[in-house]
């Protein structure tokens, strides 16, 4: 009897000790369940890793339960104050190379200090090769020390035990089993990433780990968000790239729903299909896609089996689109609806004209005089319909009669292989201009396409 009583007291004592440990140190206690290999990861154990949602969210109001997942903080810690933008991306070990570091470098290098202070980048290391994870985190620490210190970069991990079954799933669309496993895990990765990021920013931007960013993308996003919020009606997702799950922007308040949606239907279809259904369920029927695209797919080899991937966004422009308001005219016969102004406006449009004669032109008339600092003009498509002979000119003094041209023009240079590019224009032409003209200097039988006219201004 005494032995039984003694054994019972020992068991009760152990249970009390376990309860006390879990009550006071829940996160550290759960981490004890990780495998020995995981213990080699250089992480910083912090309660910041448990920060899932802001106090204003409906989850903390008690209406819904949070996801059953625990996060391991590998590097950095989110700031206490909510940022304007949280940028999320998930990264796994690839068979051929890695694009994570260049992707992060592009995000930060294309942003001003003010823009970087308004965002936090959250990286989910979604792989279970702990040697690779350790090397990756070490490289991130070495490359982005200041961003980590400033709370602009956070690296997290979720142990494999928290994932639902990833094999033996339904083979929708006749996908091979390994393909089903890959896309299903990707849905869960994004679900965990989005759930953690909720509340870190007013808005959330989904990216992949192999992209290039346009210059000052955050400022452009802020401008479009303000314009969209000023309109009547509501929106659920804004798109800043036409590709996959790249450049998709959500309101932070919708993230808990999105995280659960991706997890609930994780084995049904790819993430970029699910996101369309989610947007429609939130009553946004049509996609809202902005051009030019702010993000470009840069990876050459896919994260799935290392297959070659040449996917590119044709509307991506790495530099800032700064063309001022203007009217565009041309005396070259226009083909169908490829009007002259399409070469000036952002997006995929272009001007397409029939065989030009010497002296024909396309003239841009600025609504306000503008000091031009750089000019880029690209013509042709696939090596055809190039402008063989032409020059670019700046003009001053808008004609009062029809306001479709200027009184005087100064030549800046000729096209070379259908392209004209010039920087530091203001050093040669220091006064404000009212017109930019593309002048044909020799007739050609081929038609001409002017793909884009882009200028930078002071």
Describe the structure.
The chain has 458 residues and is an alpha+beta fold. Helix content is 26%, strand content 24%. The protein contains ten helices and 19 strands. The strands form four sheets. The protein has an eight-stranded mixed sheet, with helices on both faces. β15 and β16 form a beta hairpin. α7 runs antiparallel to α9. It is elongated. The chain starts with a helix and ends with a strand.
Per-chain topology:
Elements: H1 2-24, H2 26-31, E1 72-75, E2 83-91, H3 100-109, H4 113-116, E3 119-125, H5 130-143, H6 145-149, E4 153-157, H7 177-197, E5 201-206, E6 211-213, H8 217-230, E7 238-239, E8 248-251, H9 255-264, H10 271-281, E9 288-289, E10 295-297, E11 326-330, E12 351-353, E13 361-370, E14 372-379, E15 390-398, E16 406-414, E17 419-423, E18 433-440, E19 448-457
């Amino acid at each position: 009897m005494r032995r039984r009583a003694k054994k019972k007291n020992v068991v009760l004592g152990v249970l009390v000790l376990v309860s006390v440990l879990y009550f006071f140190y829940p996160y550290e206690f759960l981490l004890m369940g990780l495998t020995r290999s995981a213990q080699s990861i250089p992480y910083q154990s912090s309660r910041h890793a448990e920060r899932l949602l802001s106090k204003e969210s409906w989850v903390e109001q008690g209406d819904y339960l949070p996801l059953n997942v625990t996060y391991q903080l590998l590097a950095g810690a989110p700031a206490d104050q909510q940022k304007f933008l949280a940028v999320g991306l998930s990264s796994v070990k690839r068979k051929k190379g890695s694009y994570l570091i260049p992707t992060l470098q592009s995000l930060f290098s294309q942003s001003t200090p003010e823009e970087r202070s308004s965002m936090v980048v959250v990286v989910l290391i979604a792989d279970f090769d702990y040697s690779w994870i350790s090397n990756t985190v070490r490289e991130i620490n070495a490359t982005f020390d200041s961003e980590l210190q400033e709370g602009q970069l956070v690296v997290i991990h979720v142990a494999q035990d928290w994932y639902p079954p990833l094999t033996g799933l339904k083979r929708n669309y006749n996908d091979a089993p390994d393909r089903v496993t890959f896309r299903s895990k990707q849905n869960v990765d994004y679900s965990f990433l989005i759930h953690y990021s909720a509340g870190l920013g007013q808005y959330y931007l989904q990216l992949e780990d192999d992209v290039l960013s346009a210059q000052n993308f955050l400022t452009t996003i802020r401008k479009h968000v303000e314009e969209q919020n000023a309109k009547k009606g509501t929106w659920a997702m804004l798109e800043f790239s036409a590709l996959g799950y790249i450049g998709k922007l959500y309101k932070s308040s919708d993230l808990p729903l999105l995280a659960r949606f991706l997890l609930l239907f994780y084995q049904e279809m790819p993430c970029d299909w699910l996101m369309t259904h989610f947007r429609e369920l939130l009553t946004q029927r049509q996609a809202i896609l902005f051009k030019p695209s702010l993000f470009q797919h840069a990876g050459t080899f896919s994260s799935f089996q290392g297959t070659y991937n040449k996917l590119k966004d044709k509307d991506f422009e790495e530099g800032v689109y700064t063309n001022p308001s203007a009217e565009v005219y041309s005396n070259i016969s226009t083909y169908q609806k490829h009007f002259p102004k399409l070469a000036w406006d952002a997006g995929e449009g272009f001007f397409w004209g029939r065989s030009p004669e010497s002296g024909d032109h396309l003239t841009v008339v600025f609504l306000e005089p503008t000091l031009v600092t750089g000019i880029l003009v690209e013509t042709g498509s696939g090596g055809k319909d190039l402008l063989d002979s032409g020059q670019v000119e700046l003009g001053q003094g808008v004609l009062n009669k029809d306001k479709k041209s200027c009184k005087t023009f100064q030549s800046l240079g000729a096209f070379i292989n259908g392209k004209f590019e010039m920087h530091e224009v203001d050093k040669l032409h220091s006064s404000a201009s009212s017109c930019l003209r593309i002048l044909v200097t020799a007739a050609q039988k081929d038609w001409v396409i002017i793909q884009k006219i882009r200028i930078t201004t002071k």
